[in-house]
Amino acid sequence: MNAVAKVRVIDTSVVLAASLDGSNAAARFIESCTTAGATIAASRFMPLEAIHVVKNLGAAVSDLDQYFSHVSLWLSVDDALMIEAARLSGPVRGADAIHVAATLRIAGPAVEFFTHDRQQAAAAEAEGLEVFDPVTDGPNGVPAANPPGRP
After folding, report:
1. Closest CA to 25 of 134, 116, 121, 115
2. CA of 146: how far to CAs of 11, 116, 118, 143, in Å?
3. Could you report the per-residue pLDDT of 104-141, keeping only the tens digit for each?
4. Fewer beta carbons within 10 Å, N or C terminal of the chain?
5. How many CB atoms lie under 10 A from the CB of residue 143?
6. What is this structure's pTM?
């Protein structure tokens, strides 16, 4: 019986941790997904959000390309998704709701959601997603014992 390939959805905070914060853990995680045969997915909103954060901080936008290039499944953002995002329960910021709603469209046992944002992690978990933080959790999405900063 063949194992189902993992789909690992990353949000903007993972890319920003790798590019702006210099998190080797986040950068290694993104690179390791490709070599492990996992599909990296992200909402189409993620590059827009990341580019503007980087621009607003005066950093080099071109540094983001190395992370965007690992994404092989772009999750569409359309009018229906915006309605789905607005209907999420609990406290969630608008941009976070877009990432979570996009992930819910493909949710299943092989889908994992990766974020370095505690509030977004809580919102995704409230919606039933399996959530990991590649900065504080162990390699390949295995939760570390007592990871710091997690809800």
Report:
1. 134
2. 22, 15, 14, 8
3. 999 888 899 999 999 999 999 999 999 999 988 755 55
4. N
5. 13
6. 0.85
